[in-house]
Amino acid sequence: MDMSNLIKNITDDYEKIVLNKIPLIDVRAPIEFIKGSFLNAVNLPLMNDEERHLVGTCYKEKGSEEAVKLGHQLVSGKTRQERIDAWASHLNIYPNSIIYCFRGGLRSSISQQWIYETTGKEVTKLHGGYKAFRNYLIDHLVPPEQIVPLVLGGLTGCGKTVLLKKLDNSIDLEGLANHRGSSFGRYVTPQPTQIDFENNLAYALIRHKHRGYSKLLLEDESVNIGKCIIPKPLYAYFRTGNLILLDIPFEERLINTHNEYVIESQEEYLNEFGDLGLSNWFEYISGSMSRIKKRLGGDLYNRVIDCLQFAYQKQLESGDATAHKNWIEILLKEYYDPMYDYQIQTTTRKILFKGNTNEVLEYLATTQI
């Protein structure tokens, strides 16, 4: 490819990137990447945070020409080669990757040029960069036309998320938010930034629309999923969906909740923190309990926290986590279940169907939802 043709190796086919899950190389500085990026993007910066800061200061004080000159001085020699090697290594694995900076301007053009000059690899640049792609995704954070939302509801522990994952025409909002959607729902790994959550949600909506479904199945969520907020127009659209209720026996719900919030959650903490994992898990659960103390009321809070402390101490002594079912049972029966029952009794949304997992799946299949 002639150097003069590099400028032609550019794309603005954002939909293709979303649908084909095309890998992306983000050459912005790490501080920019952390604030928000895209699925399938890896941060391989042209300049690190300090270099970017120095160049930005130079631009403000001395203008564009001097800033570009400083940038080339800072990223030269061994540093320049290390950046190129990182890009080339990624392209060896993902040769169809697309490169971008903030506006699709100088940084991505320089990176594109250096890659070709040094390795002969031809990499496509994203037209408009991060800003244009982000705006494209924002434009798709609106109620999808001619697609009817259906909301999967049910008491805590009935397995709504598990059921959703079995269906191609669903979007797992909790999965996108990396949160279980309750006061105790935080994972060890952090939630995405609000920008990343919105970008990921836009990806999911675009892919769902492309599949041609007339219905969109979602879990019954509040506007906040942990710290992630569902955009208002979409949340209002989701709330127009009629309900399908998942209903399973209490004992199964208790087992599911114990497995998810105790067994699996403790395993996450142990994998992340080693010997401190169990104590860190207990600190998080007890802290979460304190945050809903007013809603629980003093008497219920005291009984639940006493049961939690007893179960934790017993687990430390014997290694047996079974006693944690006691405080979970109290919370389900005396807090979560009454609250959800009230919400269902007062809802204005139509309940289309209620049944266990197999019955709901059969209903969805036979009604071509």
UniProtKB/TrEMBL annotation:
UniProt keywords, alphabetically: Selenium
SMART domains hit by this protein: RHOD
GO biological process per UniProt: tRNA wobble uridine modification
Family annotation (PROSITE patterns): RHODANESE_3
Residues in Rhodanese domain copies: 18-142
Nuclease recorded as keyword: no
Name of the protein in question: tRNA 2-selenouridine synthase
Pfam families: AAA_SelU
